[in-house]
Amino acid sequence: MMRTLLVRGLLAGLLGGVVAAVFAYVVGQPLMDAAIEIEEAAAHGHDHGDELIGRGVQSTIGLLVAHAAYGVAIGGLFALLFALAYGRFGAWSPRAYAAVLAAGAFLAVSLVPFLAYPANPPGAGEGASVNARTGAYFGLLAISVVAAGIALYVATRLTGRWGGWNTGICLTAGYVAVVTVSGVLLPGFEEADGFPGELLWDFRVAALGDLVVFWVVLGVAFGALAQRSLAGHVSASAPATGRAGGGAPAGRR
Amino acid sequence: MTQAVAIPAPQPVSIPIREILPYAVLVTVLALAALYFVSTDNNAMTLMAEGYVHEFLHDGRHLMAFPCH
């Protein structure tokens, strides 16, 4: 079963990456080009005109390969998350599990780091601070993923006693508190001085849209595939397994 | 006369952790390696000193909201 789910996760991730790359090409690339023009006019940033790999390759094949690689990697990890969670929170259908997990993973992996360190087009971040920005971004990403993972694990223990609703509220509040305090304590970078605000905003919306498209396609596609492969993987009688730990089913969808 | 009979709802069968674990280790390691190349600017400095990988994935990195310059 794990092998089947893994293959389906890789496929759904690849599909999500490809669709997101098309979105990024249509919505994001014109903004990327405009930003690079500004960066080169300002002449303080690094030069994109004389590069090892041409802009034409970066904005097409490079864009697609980056998204596909990201999609396959995240798709594989998502299949693991699904396998760990499925059947442990209540009697939902596979695609309901996939949808809820994809929404939660989008929040923890993409949205929370984005809110603290939003996407920047070329030229809107200082080249010198890239290592510090990378460290802070991945630090917050790690905190967010670990906190969400702990919350999920604790949820499997508490749902039986507190019920799904109260457990969900308490653990979500705890997660939000952890990432909020982390986001405040980690260093901030306000480096877009003089960069056109409207272009910066549009680029950030495009980047967030890219991530939303990816996670929605991944969640829906994986749900559809898992629904089929897990169709026979249910037991007709009530307590699913002794190890489920979920207690009373939170409800059927 | 017919009588209503409660049919128990089908319960999802969770997958044993034992079965997931070897996949989890391998996939996590491989996925993190792939994500390292896609998401970090650092490979411009460490791996591939010439920066081919860095530049090839440059636009995707910016548009997937990873830090870059």
From TrEMBL, chain A:
Sorted alphabetically, which keywords does the UniProt record give?
Answer: Membrane, Transmembrane, Transmembrane helix
**Would I find ATP-binding among this entry's keywords?**
no
Q: Where are the transmembrane segments?
A: 61-84, 96-116, 136-155, 167-186, 206-226
Q: Which InterPro entries match?
A: CbtA_put
Superkingdom assignment: Bacteria
- Name of the protein in question: Probable cobalt transporter subunit (CbtA)
Q: Which organism is it from?
A: Haloechinothrix alba
TrEMBL record, chain B:
InterPro entries reported for this sequence: CbtB_put
Keywords for this protein: Membrane, Transmembrane, Transmembrane helix
Q: In terms of domain of life, where is this protein from?
A: Bacteria
Residue intervals passing through the bilayer: 20-38
Say if the entry is tagged with keyword Membrane.
yes
Protein name according to UniProt: Probable cobalt transporter subunit (CbtB)
Q: Which organism is this entry from? A: Haloechinothrix alba
